[in-house]
Specification:
This is Urea transport system substrate-binding protein. With 389 residues, the protein is an alpha/beta fold. 41% of the residues lie in helices and 19% in strands. Strand 3, helix 4 and strand 4 form a beta-alpha-beta unit. The longest helix has 20 residues.
Length: 389
């Protein structure tokens, strides 16, 4: 009997999430507000990445509300910290959908967290707006992806590295989905453009001692290092790289995950290294300058605008425009309304692909300067189409 009762409750929960009602009488959103969950870690191993993302999401929501909201409703945000714990993220997502009645969730960062949350989003037929560069996947029918997949981040980076830095490449990555799958993609391009892999290894996401890794790089004769080290581990990696005898000006780190927050935390040891992203906060346009200035005015300079923060910012605008255009607040209608949506972002005009739920984006290659900003050295010729798995 208990098992039947429990199954009945699960069925009711799915119906509630799908059709916008709750057994306790709550509506999914009140007549005056539309509830949006903001799910980021301001604590834990990915806090350097996710705190600026939450800040930028708040900035966008406040701007949209000041301009009148969506469908005549104010966005009512619910900010939740999941402590960089994928299991907790899934638990919090379920709570936001079933108890708090959010229409959509914006957030998660590391791929293992996104993958932990997706079953909950799909089970209860909600929407997740995912704002971080990632390894690519067969798109979920319930997700909108607002940052790069591998072809946008890596396809131009690898040939640039081989041409400008040399063909001998050492590979280091954190041991989870994003680094491993993106590195697999990068290895195809290394082979295609005549590069040579002189070493490859993976470290735990919580790694703090990279001395042995650096010594192996030193012994390999590499021209450069392709780095998929992610999260807060970037800080000890970059510091150990210099401390144990490597010179970034001679053998640089070429990263797909060392954004401005990490570089700021590293300090002078980061100078000379490279990264590839869809946005750098040093982008010399009026829109980007205004975005950065406003961020710093609101949140100070203890956190730093990153490409993922910018992805969260334009992700909120894409979601808001989709809700505005949708026939209803159902997940299917919101996702359908996002197809082909264009928004003006700090990085320029971008658009959501009509079919695969990913953004068309500009891509850039930058080098860390003495002031810990990225100098942009190369950019794509217009928006790059996303090609997920």
């Amino acid at each position: 009997m208990k098992r039947v009762f429990k199954k009945s409750l699960e069925v009711l929960a799915v119906l509630a999430a799908t059709f916008g009602f709750f057994s306790c009488g709550e509506k999914k959103s009140s007549a005056k507000t539309v509830k949006i969950g903001i799910l980021y870690s301001t604590t834990g191993n990915f806090s350097l990445s996710e705190t600026p993302m939450q800040n930028a999401a708040k900035m966008a929501i406040d701007e949209i509300n000041a301009a009148g909201g969506v469908k005549g409703m104010q966005i009512e945000p619910l900010y939740v910290d999941y402590g960089s714990d994928p299991a907790m993220a899934a638990e919090k997502a379920q709570q936001m959908i079933l108890k708090d009645g959010v229409t959509a969730i914006v957030g998660t960062n590391a791929s293992n967290t996104r993958l932990a949350v997706i079953p909950t989003i799909e089970k209860y037929n909600s929407v997740l707006v995912y704002n971080t560069y990632y390894e690519g996947e067969k798109p979920s029918k319930n997700l909108l992806y607002t940052n790069t997949c591998p072809n946008q981040q890596v396809a131009a980076f690898i040939p640039w590295m081989i041409k400008n830095l040399g063909p001998k490449i050492y590979i280091v990555g954190s041991d989870y989905e994003f680094p491993r799958k993106t590195i697999a993609f990068a290895k195809e391009y290394i082979a295609k453009f005549g590069g040579q892999i002189v070493g490859e290894e993976y470290t735990p996401t919580s790694e703090t001692d990279f001395s042995s890794v650096v010594n192996r790089i030193k012994a390999s004769g590499a021209d450069c290092v392709f780095s998929g080290v992610a999260g807060n581990s970037n800080v000890p990696f970059y510091k150990d790289y210099v401390q144990y005898g490597m010179d970034p000006k001679k053998v640089p780190l070429c990263s797909i995950s060392s954004h401005e927050s990490a570089i700021k935390a590293v300090g002078s040891a980061a100078v000379g290294n490279y990264a590839s992203f869809d946005y750098f906060n040093s982008l010399d346009t009026p829109e980007s300058k205004l975005f950065v200035e406003k961020y710093q005015k609101l949140f100070g300079t203890t956190t730093t605008v990153t490409n993922s923060a910018e992805g969260a910012y334009h992700g909120i605008y894409i979601l808001a425009k989709a809700i505005e255009n949708a026939k209803s607040l159902s997940a299917q209608d919101i996702i359908a309304a996002a197809s082909g949506v264009e928004v003006d972002s700090p990085g320029g005009k971008i658009k959501m692909d009509e079919k695969n739920h990913h953004c068309w984006l500009n891509t850039y290659i930058g080098q860390v300067q003495d002031d810990l900003s990225y100098k942009i050295l190369a950019k794509s010729d217009g928006l790059v189409a996303p090609i997920p798995e």
